[in-house]
Amino acid sequence: MSLGLFHYISNEGGMAKQNPRRANGARRDAIRKRWRAIGAPCALCGRPIDYSLGMVLDLRTGKRRAHPMSFVVDEIVPVSKGGSPLDFANTQPAHWICNARRGNATATTPQRTQDMPLPHPWDM
Ligand SMILES: [Zn+2]
Fold it and tell me: How remote is the C-alpha of 102 from its chain's centroid?
């Protein structure tokens, strides 16, 4: 098969920096695109999400980070409780800050450490 060599090379490249979060990132991205197309409001606070918001420059750190009101995918059933972060039916749209606040609220429970962290926009 003529494409065999290309597949082999690209697999090699993939192996070098392969990690589950990155592999999931592509599937998460598909879910992000689907929610963006729907344009639904934040499931945590009920306010509209500006899906055009992206990265902002944090003047205190000089680093780029997600805009607090930007869109993230939130899991309805947490991964620690058997929910899938890659199943569209288990996801809902949320503001970055709403999701971060909710994450902080449960950060003290031991199971939380086993959660797969949400991919940060700058990792994707
Ligand atoms: Zn919100």
Answer: 15
